[in-house]
Structures are given as C-alpha cells and as structure tokens.
Amino acid sequence: MSALLVMLVMGCGPAELGEECDEVGSSEDCEDGAICTNSSSGEEAVCRLLCAEQTQCPAGTTCNGISGTNLKSCQPD
C-alpha cells in the first residue's frame, strides 16, 4: 500500500521543461525556474525556462515575451 502512495505522490509533482502544463503564464504547474507557455503549435501548453535576456537561453531558443504577462521564456527557434 505504501508503494502505491509513493508512486501517486511522485506522479503529481511539477512538470519539467518541455512537459505539458495547464495554465499559460503560471509557474505553479512547472518546476522551479520554468513557466507554462503556449507550444509553437498552439495546441498545448508546455513548461519553458524563464528568462530576462537572451544570454539566459540555450542554443536554439530565443527569449520572448509570454502573451498576457510581463514575463519572458526561452522559446524554440
């Protein structure tokens, strides 16, 4: 019974970078340092790295604003 409880708790943690999330503009669904943003297809929302400037983003991404907020995230090019 305790093994089932551990599996349930681990499955309910915050989403990691690139994983789906529920509320665009919210950081509550995502791991620390990430925020929920629209995917490039616009069909789902995913967690992306928060940024203030381009130097904080990995190669292949651009620090862009998140619609409806004053925040930015590293969006795929």
Task: Give a quick rundown of the structure.
With 77 residues, the chain is α+β, with helices and mostly antiparallel strands. It has one helix at 2-11, and strands at residues 20-21, 34-38, 45-51, 61-65, 72-76.
Question: Could you please describe the fold and organization of this structure?
Answer:
The protein has one domain (14-76). It is built from one helix and five strands, in the order H-E-E-E-E-E. The chain is of the alpha+beta class. The model is unreliable at 1-10 (pLDDT under 50). Strands 1, 2, 3, 4 and 5 form a five-stranded antiparallel beta sheet that branches.
Number of helices in the DSSP assignment: 1
Helix content: 10-25%
Helix and strand pattern? HEEEEE
Major beta sheet summary: 5 strands, antiparallel
What brief labels describe this structure?
77 residues, alpha+beta, 1 helix
Write the layout of secondary structure elements.
Layout: H1 2-11, E1 20-21, E2 34-38, E3 45-51, E4 61-65, E5 72-76
Antiparallel strand pairs: 1-3, 2-3, 3-5, 4-5
